[in-house]
Each structure stands twice: as structure tokens, then as C-alpha cells.
Amino acid sequence: MTELLEDVLLLFAAVEFLVEAWERPDARGFLVLAGGFFACMLIRELDFLFDMVHHGFWLYPALVTAVASVVVAIMYRRTVLAPMAAYADTKSCIYVSIGVLIVIVFSRLYGSGRLIWSDIMGTNYRAEYKTIIQEGLELFGYVFISYGVCLLPRKH
Fold first, then answer.
1. For 7-51, what is each residue's pLDDT tens digit?
2. Eight-class DSSP state of 90
3. What is the pLDDT of residue 37?
4. Long-range contact list for 3-10, CB < 8 A, 24+ apart?
5. Could you tell me the pLDDT band of residue 114, with boundaries at 50, 70 and 90?
6. Which candidate among 72, 77, 139, 151 keeps its CA 20 to 30 Å from the CA of 121?
7. Long-range CB contact pairs, 14-21, < 8 A, 24+
């Protein structure tokens, strides 16, 4: 259930940024990059599906998504830096940034069995504890990201 909710929250973030990119040509380059970033994170989270093709296959759709996002951003390069700078000064950016930090740094750091938990727990180490902590932190981070996306400055 936790992983499903994480996937839904990431899909929400990616789609919202991409919908905003469609509706806001003045910020399209930046918004496509942000949407592409969250789409790549979603693809990585769905690695279990891509592993049905072969182990590590998630990398290829993620690379295609990243390259497509960069190509679109290059096409709309005049709409990347100024909108990114404007976004950096919003409440949305604060929540999204905190969420990304939690997911990328803390969930990986505290979710690493070899890095922390095996030394702390010694012979009592069980991978389930590490997984619970890692998935809990990821979900916590994705909630921050989703809330930040809800605060996206809209132009209507």
C-alpha cells in the first residue's frame, strides 16, 4: 500500500508539472524539466514492473524521458532560467525541495542496511526494519512534494 501511494503521489507531481507546462508557455521549459524529473523518479519507483523485461530495464525509459525533457527545455530555453528563479522564491519550491531532500538523501541514507543498520543492530539486523524506515521516509518526502505541487503558482 505504501509503495502504491508513493507511485500515485509521484504521478501526481509529474502530471501537474507537465499540465502546467502545457498551460503556461512562458514557463514551459522549466516546468517540463520539473515534470520530467518526477516522471524519471516514478519510472525508477516502478522498477519492479520494468524488471519483468529484464533487471535494470527501468534505466532505458528513464533515459528517454530525461532526454525528451531536456530536448523540450532546449526548444523553450528562454522559458527555463527566469521561471526557475521565480519558482525558487515560492512556498511551493520550499515544500518540493524538502520532499526531494528527504527522498534522495534521508531515505537512501537511512534505508541503507550496510551503511548504518547492520553496524547498529549487529546480529539483530533484519532487512524489514530498514525497508520500513526507507519506505516511510520516501512516503513522507513524496507527501511534501505533492503538497508543494498543490501550491504551484498557477497562471489562469
1. 999 999 999 999 999 999 999 999 999 999 999 999 999 998 988
2. S
3. 98
4. 3/45, 3/135, 5/139, 5/142, 6/45, 6/135, 6/138, 6/139, 6/142, 7/42, 7/45, 7/46, 9/139, 9/142, 9/143, 9/145, 9/146, 10/38, 10/41, 10/42, 10/45, 10/142, 10/145
5. low
6. 139
7. 14/38, 14/39, 14/41, 14/42, 16/149, 16/152, 17/149, 17/152, 20/152, 20/154
Query: Is 0.85 topped by the overall pTM?
Result: yes
* Mean pLDDT (whole number) for 125-152: 90
Closest C-alpha among 145, 74, 70 to residue 104: 145
C-alpha dihedral sign at 126, 130, 135, 140: positive
Residue 20 amino acid letter: E
Contact between residue 48 and residue 10 where contact means Cβ atoms under 8 Å apart: no
Q: Which triple of cell numbers denotes residue 146?
A: 505533492
Split at pLDDT 50, 70, 90, the class of 115 is low
Collect all residues with Cβ–Cβ distance below 8 Å to 25 and sequence separation of at least 6: 76, 79
Query: Grid coordinates 519483468 are at which residue?
Result: 52
